[in-house]
Amino acid sequence: MKILIVDDDASSRTVLHKIISSQPEHQITVADGGVAAWALLDDPLRIFDVVFLDLSMPEMDGFALLQKIRTSAVLRSLEVVLCTGSNDRSTVVRAVQLGVRHYMVKPVGAGAVRAKLEQLRPAEALLHERGFLKV
Question: In terms of Cα–Cα distance, which of 82, 63, 83 is closest to 71?
């Protein structure tokens, strides 16, 4: 899977990167905020299967990036896993309204991240088989 990790906190990015990279079949790209992530996502030469997205970031927060993703004809069906310290009701409701189906509360554990990746794998494999995603 081609995975984009978006978080302004270096230690959070490192932890998530270390967990995901323990499975060598994943290709990981990191962005230190929403603006950098959008530049990667908006690049037609880059394709991602999953985005692990923090919410609380300067310049462009996770919700602003998520809105850009959901309004993009190319990216609107991209799988997004919110990976954030916020788990209050209003945040979760807003995330669901923006089409988020995967939500993890920090700090995340290796087992939970691996289970989430396994859960996402069938959808990714199906899209590859149908020719919607390029290898």
Answer: 63
